[in-house]
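Researcher: Please predict.
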Amino acid sequence: MKHLALITALTLWAPAVPAQEASEDGDVAEGFSLMEEGAQLLFRGVIEEMAPALEDLKGFAGEIEPTFRAFALEMGPAMAKLLSEIDDLRHYSPPEFMPNGDIIIRRLPNAPEFVPPTPPSAPPIDL
């Protein structure tokens, strides 16, 4: 996406650059204007080539949006709980996948002691 923005900006900028004027003897210095025209043609070609792919991507994003929205609603609280139970991912080694299917994430030996957060105290319930 950053590349598309850069290409668009360069394409819009190129026409704003003034062409070289004719010298006193009538010769036109076309070096820069030819470069400008070549750059414009290149960028227009790239944009035309990318347009169908971007449209397909837009359609695909529209199709999967409900799935991602449901995933975020379902997994958001679980991820927040998980992140509250660990302090900093830099204090853990990469996951180890065991032959029996278990996944072990070990805390590094030189990591500082982990102090779990205290759960908020719930107000007393009147019965």
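Model: Helices lie at 2-13, 31-85.
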